Amino acid sequence: MKVDIDMGAASPGKPAMLDLEELLATRLLVQGNSGSGKSHLLRRLLEQSAPWVQQCVIDPEGDFVTLADRFGHVVVDAQRTEAELTRIAGRIRQHRVSVVLNLEGLDVEQQMRAAAAFLGGLFDAERDHWYPVLVVVDEAQLFAPAVAGEVSDEARKVSLGAMTNLMCRGRKRGLAGVIATQRLAKLAKNVAAEASNFLMGRTFLDIDMARAADLLGMDRRQAEMFRDLARGHFVALGPALSRRPLPVTIGAVETSARSTSPKLTPLPQAQDDAHDLIFTPGPEEARMPVRRPPPPAPVPTAELLAQLARPAPAPEPPAEPVFAIIDEAERTAGIETVLQEILDDPDAAFRTDAVLYQDFLVRCRIRRVPGEPLDLAAFRRMFAVARAGVDRSTANGEGWPVALKLSEGLPADLQGVFLFVAQAALAGAPCPPDATLARIYGSHSARRAARLLAYFEERDLLVSRTDFHGRRVLAFPDLGCETAPGDPHAPDTATPTRDAAE
């Protein structure tokens, strides 16, 4: 179904139309300095498309919560745990409810973690719930920064990974990313490059103008035009907007933001008692007189000597803790047991992370594993390590910590495959066949497993070679080891569990 949205005017008497169905397939990038009208543009897009498609707005300043009164969006306060936000996002996709994730009141690192958990829940929804969703992210440079800032590397990595999944892999899951940024130079290039539609507003810095001109396919000498754009005026390009750069004036909106641009107001008339108004405390500031307690009566010398002669009182027994002390070793053993139970299920390899995570939580409750449950990100990491099936001798060697460190730079769904082939190299085992690697990845396609090895090789993590008998060998330069030759076309063989290996 073709639905055109009126974004404003392209020329006198001619509307600027946006193909909503094409937008869902090709994504949108909006750029403009503060005050250029980005938020106004996003509000116009949200209002016009609200009757046609589900919407999720990542709102760092709380400006879009007013959509709830007019269009029925549900406001989700982000001051929750990451696990709770992930579960809420899954229910949002299941019930197709339009929401605004309000990040107002959180610091930058907390906003990045909350947005990453929420986007992860949208991305990991079950296949039956992959309905089209317009995911609008305002101030995207906060969640996908081009360079490291003052936040921790972990928060930046998690947030950047969620934004990359949204823009690079979200289309097949029905997620259409619409990202807005003040500075193209501060936005990660791999996130910006996935957008096929662009709306470029006013900007003044040369580096931002040059990137905007490159994205629009314009001569860099024409980039000066971005300095002259008025508020609410943008240059549009993309399959959902126009095949050639098209000046667009954004139309009016029905709702308004809670925060507005500052307006000049006249100062009050000069007052003769201005000095007294500033330096004289008001009635509510008047302090009550402080009464000093009388000094204590002097203690007789005989009583002081008697106190010194008394034996010291016995120490009081320590108070019993209110909550039971958690045995970390017991908790770790319980989690490892639950993970092994899931791995022993032959169908677990082909389940999504979200389904496996829910199964993990249920099993932990059944076994009464103490402590807070793992969040989704920690579960993915531990499950990837467990799926590698490393034995005790390999885990205690010098190479395994290096392999774990190398895997941290990979997407969450690829870490298990990398660790699986790395432990085979550390143990000197034959190179696993493509069918086995496909099962570890959660797929039935052996060709996809071969592409995964090519991806690792592009990242300089391993080197693949074939011996004279056509058998594959995987060498790991950073680990200083390689697998034994193995037939890549051999059938899948079940990997022995860790307990059996031990």
UniProtKB/TrEMBL annotation:
It comes from the Bacteria. Residues 483-502 have a biased composition (Low complexity). Residues 481-502 are annotated as: Disordered. The keyword ATP-binding applies. Gene3D superfamilies: P-loop containing nucleotide triphosphate hydrolases. It holds the Pfam family DUF87. GO terms for molecular function: helicase activity. Keywords: ATP-binding, Helicase, Hydrolase, Nucleotide-binding. InterPro entries: AAA+_ATPase, ATPase_Atu1862_pred, HerA-like, HerA_central, P-loop_NTPase. Residues 24-213 form the AAA+ ATPase domain. SMART domains: AAA. PANTHER family: HELICASE MJ1565-RELATED (PTHR42957). This is Helicase HerA domain-containing protein. It comes from Aquamicrobium soli.
